[in-house]
UniProtKB/TrEMBL annotation:
Domain Transmembrane protein 135 N-terminal: 18-149
Region Disordered, annotated ranges: 210-350
Family: Belongs to the TMEM135 family.
Compartment(s) where it occurs, according to its Swiss-Prot or TrEMBL record: Endomembrane system
Protein's recorded name: Transmembrane protein 135 N-terminal domain-containing protein
Superkingdom: Eukaryota
Gene that encodes the chain: ORF133512
The keyword Cell membrane appears for this protein: no
Residue ranges with Polar residues bias: 227-237
PANTHER family, alphabetized: TRANSMEMBRANE PROTEIN 135, TRANSMEMBRANE PROTEIN 135-RELATED
InterPro entries, A to Z: Tmem135 (IPR026749), TMEM135_N (IPR031926)
Length: 609
C-alpha cells in the first residue's frame, strides 16, 4: 500500500461490492439492516437519555411538574433524534450504492452521513443544536488531527494538549477577570472553580491604589451603585439601535454559548448544556446521553467536556459536566429578551446561586457518606489551628479576599483537590459497582487508589496556581489588572499535565472560538450566519462517521467502543478489506475479519476479493 496521503490520486476512484457485501454484512436485506439499527439505537438511546435527564433533573432540583410534563417527551425526542441519525445513515448508504451502482470515496460514508445528520438534527430541540455543533466540531478536529498523524503529514507534539489548554486558559481567565468578559453560565463555572474573589461581577473595580487602601466599604457601596446606573444607561441606549437590536440581544446573551444563533441560555457554559456532552451523534455515553459515536463508560460524565478515554472521569467531555447538570435551564426567546434587560447585578446573583446550588448538592452527597464525612471533619479539626495562623499573614491592599494571600491560595487549592478526589473516587466506585456488591472490600481499594490523585491534582493545581499568580503579581506590581488573569491562566493551565486529556483541551478551545466569534458579531460586525449550527453539526458528524467507516483506527478508542455498543456491534461487521483499495488502511482495526456471507447473495471469498 502506498503512502495513504496519496490515496485519492493513486487508487481506484470507486469500488463495486454490493451494500450487503460491504456494509450490512449481517443481513442481505437493506430494509432489515435499517430496522435492526433503528430498534437497537432507540433502545440504547432511551436508557442513556432517560438516565441523563433523570440525574440532571435531580441535580437541578426540578419539581414533580417537570417529570410529569417534560421528562418523558424530552427523553423520547432526543432518543428519536439519535435513532433517525443512525437509521438514515445505513439507509442512505444503501440508496447511494444502488443509485450509482458503485461506491466512491465520498459516497461510501460522508454523503450518506451528512444527509442523515442534517435531517436528524432538525428533529432535535433548537436549544440543543448549538452545543451539539460545538461538541461535534471538537471531536471532528481531534479525528482530523489523528488522520494527519496516521498519514505522517504531521508529527505528534509531546504534551501538546497541555500547551493548548494553557493558551486557552489564558484567554478564558483574562475574560473571567474582565467585566462582562464571559456569559453568565461560563462565568458561573469558573467562579465555582476559582472562587468569586477575582470576578469583577461580584467586586467593584478599584479606582486607584490609594482609594483601595483607604475608602473601605463605603467606597465599594458607592461604586456598586454607580456601576448599576452605568449598566442601566447602557441598556437604555442599547435598545434604540434599530433593526439589529433583537439580534444583538441574542448574541450578547449567548456569548458564552450556543453556536451562531442558538437562542438558549443553556448553551452558555463551557459544558453547560446537556447536549454539549449529551446527545451528540459522537458523544460519550453518559456525558453525551446518547451519542452514536461515543464513550461507553459511565465515568465519562464531564466537568468541562468529555466532554473520555479510559474509564472516563468527571472532566471528560465532553460535556456531562457539572456545568451541564447544574447549569441554567433553557429559556424561550421571550424570556431571553426580558432577562437581557435585567441589571447586571441580578445576573451575577443568578450565576452565584448556580454555583451555590452545585456546592450544596455535592456537600449533601458527602454528608450521606458517614466514613468520608467523619474523615473530612477530623482533618479539618486537626488543621484548624494551622489555618488560623496562615490567615493572620499579610494580604496585599489590592487583594479582595478576606484573609492572607497564603491562606487564600491554600484554601482554594485544598477545596478543589478534595472535590476532584471525591468525585473521581465516586465515579470509579460506580464503574465497579457490581464488583463492590460481590466483594465489599473492593470499595476501600477504589477510594484509596492513586489514580484518584490525577483529577485531584489537576483541579487543585488549577485553582491554587491561578490564585497564587494573581496575588504574586499584585505584590510585585503594586496594583491589580485583568492581564494578571491572562498570565495566571496560562500558568494554571499547565496543571493539565497531571490529568492529560486532549478532549478537555479541544473542547475548551472550541467553546472559546465560539465565544470569541459572538464577540466579533457584537463588536466588530462579523457575519451572523443563521442556522449555521445545523450545517456545522451535519458536516462534523459526517466527517466523524466517514472516519468510522474508512478509518476507524483514527477515532478515539472510547468512541469506537461506544459506537459498537449502540449499534449492537454492527459497525464491526462491515467488510473493510474491500475499502483498502482507497489506501487509508481501512481494515487496520480488524485485519483478520471476513464476513460469513449467505450463499446465493454473494460470490465474494477472502481470496478473490
Amino acid at each position: 500500500v502506498r503512502n495513504s496521503n496519496m490515496a485519492i490520486f493513486s487508487k481506484p476512484l470507486s469500488v463495486n461490492p454490493t451494500c450487503y457485501e460491504l456494509g450490512h454484512c449481517w443481513t442481505p436485506y437493506c430494509h432489515k439492516a435499517s430496522t435492526d439499527i433503528a430498534s437497537h439505537v432507540f433502545k440504547e438511546s432511551l436508557k442513556i437519555y432517560g438516565t441523563l435527564y433523570l440525574v440532571a433533573g435531580i441535580l437541578r432540583k426540578r419539581g414533580l411538574n417537570y417529570y410529569v410534563k417534560k421528562f418523558v417527551p424530552e427523553t423520547i425526542r432526543s432518543s428519536l433524534f439519535l435513532t433517525i441519525n443512525g437509521t438514515l445513515f445505513i439507509s442512505m448508504f444503501c440508496i447511494w450504492r444502488n443509485m450509482l451502482g458503485c461506491l466512491f470515496f465520498v459516497t461510501a460514508s460522508f454523503i450518506p452521513a451528512y444527509i442523515a445528520a442534517f435531517t436528524a438534527v432538525l428533529f432535535e430541540r433548537k436549544s440543543r443544536r448549538g452545543a451539539l455543533a460545538v461538541y461535534l466540531t471538537n471531536l471532528a478536529i481531534e479525528t482530523g488531527y489523528r488522520m494527519l498523524v496516521e498519514r505522517k503529514i504531521v508529527s505528534p507534539v509531546r504534551n501538546g494538549e497541555v500547551y493548548l489548554f494553557s493558551a486557552v486558559s489564558a484567554v478564558y481567565l483574562y475574560l473571567f477577570r474582565k467585566k462582562d468578559g464571559l456569559g453568565d453560565a461560563t462565568q458561573s463555572l469558573f467562579k465555582f472553580i476559582m472562587g468569586s474573589d477575582e470576578c469583577p461581577q461580584t467586586l467593584p473595580t478599584l479606582l486607584s491604589e490609594k482609594s483601595a487602601a483607604t475608602s473601605g466599604r463605603e467606597h465599594r457601596h458607592d461604586h456598586l451603585i454607580d456601576s448599576s446606573r452605568t449598566t442601566k444607561s447602557y441598556q437604555d441606549s442599547y435598545s434604540h439601535r434599530g433593526s439589529r437590536s433583537s439580534l444583538e440581544v441574542d448574541v450578547r446573551k449567548s456569548q458564552g454559548g450556543s453556536i451562531f444563533g442558538d437562542k438558549s441560555s443553556s448553551g452558555g457554559s463551557l459544558g453547560e448544556d446537556e447536549t454539549s456532552s449529551a446527545g451528540s451523534l459522537a458523544g460519550d455515553e453518559t456525558s453525551s446521553g446518547g451519542s452514536l459515536v461515543g464513550d461507553e463508560s459511565l465515568s465519562g460524565v464531564s466537568f468541562v467536556g468529555d466532554e473520555t478515554s479510559s474509564g472516563g472521569s468527571l472532566l471528560r467531555d465532553e460535556t456531562s459536566s457539572l456545568g451541564s447538570l447544574a447549569g441554567e435551564e433553557e429559556t424561550s426567546t421571550e424570556s431571553l429578551e426580558s432577562s437581557s434587560s435585567r441589571p447586571r447585578g441580578s445576573k451575577a446573583l443568578l450565576s452565584s446561586s448556580t454555583s451555590s446550588s452545585l456546592q450544596a448538592t455535592i456537600y449533601m452527597i458527602l454528608q450521606k457518606l458517614p466514613l468520608l464525612s467523619s474523615l473530612v471533619g477530623g482533618v479539618k479539626e486537626q488543621l484548624r489551628p494551622v489555618l488560623r495562623s496562615f490567615e493572620q499573614l499579610p494580604r496585599h491592599k489590592c487583594c479582595h479576599h478576606n484573609h492572607s494571600c497564603i491562606s487564600y491560595v491554600l484554601k482554594g487549592g485544598a477545596k478543589m483537590f478534595t472535590l476532584g478526589y471525591v468525585v473521581q473516587s465516586m465515579i470509579n466506585s460506580l464503574s465497579v459497582a457490581s464488583r463492590i456488591l460481590k466483594k465489599p472490600s473492593t470499595l476501600k481499594n477504589t477510594w484509596f487508589s492513586k489514580l484518584n490523585l490525577k483529577l485531584a491534582a489537576f483541579l487543585g493545581g488549577y485553582c491554587a496556581v491561578f490564585r497564587a499568580v494573581n496575588c504574586i503579581l499584585r505584590w510585585i506590581r503594586n496594583k491589580d489588572s485583568e492581564l494578571h488573569g491572562c498570565i495566571a491562566g496560562a500558568l494554571a493551565g499547565l496543571s493539565l499535565r497531571f490529568y492529560r486529556s486532549i478532549t478537555i483541551a479541544l473542547y475548551t478551545a472550541t467553546k472559546l472560538m465560539e465565544i470569541l466569534y459572538f464577540k466579533g458579531i457584537h463588536f466588530y460586525g462579523f457575519p451572523y450566519i443563521k442556522s449555521a449550527d445545523i450545517f456545522i453539526y451535519a458536516f462534523s458528524t459526517a466527517f466523524i462517521l466517514h472516519a468510522a467507516v474508512l478509518e476507524p483506527h483514527t477515532l478515539r478508542p472510547g468512541y469506537w467502543k461506544f459506537l459498537l455498543r449502540v449499534t449492537n456491534n454492527r459497525f464491526a461487521f462491515m467488510n473493510r478489506k474491500l475499502l483498502d483499495v482507497f489506501g487509508v488502511n481501512s481494515s487496520k482495526i480488524q485485519p483478520d475479519y471476513w464476513p460469513d456471507y449467505e450463499p446465493g447473495f454473494s460470490t465474494l471469498t477472502r481470496n478473490n476479493s
